[in-house]
Design goal:
There is one protein chain. The chain is α/β, with parallel strands linked by helices. The protein is built from 21 helices and 14 strands. The strands form three sheets. The protein has a six-stranded parallel sheet. A six-stranded parallel sheet has the order 9-8-7-10-11-12, with helices on both faces. A two-stranded parallel ribbon has the order 13-14.
């Protein structure tokens, strides 16, 4: 089958989000043909180039999400009226309660998409005064929330600018018959769309569903709506309250529409699943698919768990306030009272300027809590807490970082899927974690879990494992077995292979396939493509479910004859 893979700020670019698992997915499903539709996140990402793609990737179509040139499209009076109505519907949905906004948001969104396809673009209209006036009318309408009614002109302009950026995918030429310029294939010619995240990446899939009835699969390992609410990477994080409220409403309505139209939604863990169901995802269409991780890089460490220092605790990850290293340091003061030989290694790079400042604070706190100690009057003092980054001589690689200690600690107060915890499990390490995000789902019963922001509980759990090597070994072995069963690349690829077949079987395509002689090829169309209809009298007629619009074309000529089927002796 032909898969349209939709990405944002990631694959196939060298840098970005979700690039690694997308590359593994594409390479692992070599029997299918992939087409990549990528929204780039910035000029630097585009200059960095793309990864080397396997031969079964048919084409790569990219578009910049970070900028948009004027399309030069001049709307006539009728088109301007049509734009004002559609944009007004979308804006009104942002100012209404959740019980009545879903249909209005969808009507406005698809109306704008149809207008963009008919007129050749939407960029100029979204930047026009008509858009700002429509947004202002929606905010001043009866029943609008007080926050929206108090919006002033600069705030309305800011909201309109953010909406213009978010709606840029509507102006792409990916939704025309034949794919648009250059006669390149478009989303109307794929059998299935797979969005690698929600938000902007799923928007082209929504339009393919609307225009061509192409089924959509949405995968979210980190819920984009949750990231927006938390302000992670959101351009509106420092904006006025009315701006944040209206943009949060937009992203919430978009997420609801994506979940409503998707054939299947595949969260990476139960924590993401709860977010999706709360935002309108049908539980019957949600299928958890755990992220696939490369277990081979940790095999050597996992095969020799006894080589670790039995008195060392290890923390590995990105240094930022959400990781709550302050609580870990305070917990370590309690651990040292009962275990004087205990040591703590913090290995990780700071995440941006905020992470750099937080790392400096943690270094100062460690120096205050643990003055350099020396075994005697003539020995050099040594601090029991050390800081390093991956690539340093103390931790040349990720596997070596986990191998440095007998117990791996996670002290976060906010977490999605704890990838570092799964990596520690591959290394057969016993773990102590805080009960946040998907931690309990990942470790099962193979590690100790304590409440977040509780240094005393964290200290007691770590001390219990440091004093009991046999328990550490049992938990580490069980953790590794669980990780190899649930979190490998192979299980991830196998899950999506089945999902693709399931979705396509429920959304069959009517297509006549001819052999080299021009005759219809037998068994070329799967049996699921012909669904029994109603009997209308003496003559029975079989009707098929309406396929995508692009399927109603001339017959497709096959490339090779069908080999006769033979049964082996065992199969008989």
């Amino acid at each position: 089958m032909r898969i349209g893979l939709l990405t944002e700020s990631g694959y196939p670019y060298v840098s970005g989000d979700a690039g690694l698992w997308c590359d593994r997915l594409v390479r692992g499903l070599g029997q299918h043909e992939f087409e990549i539709y990528a929204l780039s996140g910035g000029r630097a990402q585009e200059k960095a180039g793309c990864v080397e793609l396997p031969p079964h990737v048919g084409q790569v179509r990219t578009a910049p999400l970070w900028t948009a040139e004027e399309d030069g499209v001049a709307y006539g009076r009728r088109a301007r009226r049509r734009f004002t109505e559609c944009y007004g519907e979308l804006a009104a949905a942002l100012c209404e309660g959740p019980t009545s906004q879903a249909d209005r948001f969808a009507s406005g969104l698809y109306g704008l998409a149809e207008l963009a396809r008919d007129e050749g673009g939407l960029v100029g209209a979204l930047r026009s005064e008509d858009a700002v006036r429509a947004l202002e009318r929606a905010c001043r309408a009866p029943g609008a929330p007080r926050t929206a009614r108090e919006a002033c002109v600069p705030e309305l302009l800011t909201v309109a600018a953010h909406l213009e950026q978010a709606l840029r995918p509507l102006s792409l030429d990916w939704y025309r018959e034949g794919g648009g310029a250059g006669n390149a294939g478009g989303l109307g010619e794929v059998d299935l769309c797979h969005a690698a995240s929600g938000g902007a990446a799923a928007l082209p899939g929504l339009l393919a569903r609307h225009f061509f009835d192409v089924p959509l699969v949405v995968t979210e390992y980190g819920v984009r709506l949750r990231s927006h609410y938390l302000g992670s990477g959101s351009p509106s994080a420092e904006a006025a309250p009315v701006v944040r409220a209206l943009l949060a409403a937009f992203h919430g309505r978009l997420a609801t529409e994506v979940y409503r139209q998707a054939a299947l939604v595949t969260p990476g863990h139960a924590h993401a699943r709860r977010w999706q169901e709360r935002c309108g995802a049908d539980r019957a269409k949600v299928r958890t698919v755990h992220p696939g991780m490369d277990a081979a890089r940790f095999a050597e460490v996992g095969d020799a768990p006894d080589t670790a220092d039995p008195h060392t605790l290890v923390w590995v990850g990105r240094v930022e306030p959400a990781k709550d290293l302050v609580s870990l340091l305070h917990a370590f003061t309690l651990i040292r009272k009962d275990e004087p030989r205990a040591r703590l290694r913090i290995i990780g790079a700071p995440a941006g300027p905020e992470g750099q400042a937080y790392l400096g604070h943690c270094r100062m706190l460690a120096a205050q809590l643990f003055p350099d100690e020396a075994e005697g009057p003539h020995a050099v003092g040594d601090n029991p807490v050390s800081f390093a980054e991956i690539g340093d001589p103390e931790a040349p690689g990720l596997a070596e970082a986990y191998a440095a200690g007998a117990v791996v600690v996670l002290s976060s107060v906010v977490e999605g899927f704890p990838a570092g915890l799964a990596e520690a499990m591959f290394c057969a390490r016993a773990t102590v974690s805080t009960d946040v995000g998907a931690v309990v789902e990942v470790i099962g019963g193979t590690g100790l879990v304590v409440p977040p922001r509780n240094p005393r509980a964290l200290a007691e759990a770590c001390g219990a494992l440091l004093r009991d090597p046999e328990r550490r070994a049992r938990l580490g072995a069980a953790a590794r077995a669980r990780a190899l069963e649930l979190f490998t690349v192979e299980q991830n690829i196998a899950a999506f292979r089945g999902i693709y077949l399931e979705v396509v079987s429920r959304n069959p395509v009517r297509r006549v396939v001819l052999d080299a002689a021009g005759d219809p090829r037998p068994f070329a169309v799967p049996a699921e493509a012909r669904l029994p209809g109603r009997w209308t009298g003496l003559g029975a007629r079989v009707t098929a479910r309406r396929g995508p619009g692009w399927a109603a074309g001339p017959p497709v000529r096959g490339t090779a004859a069908v080999a006769p089927l033979t049964l082996t002796e065992g199969a008989r």
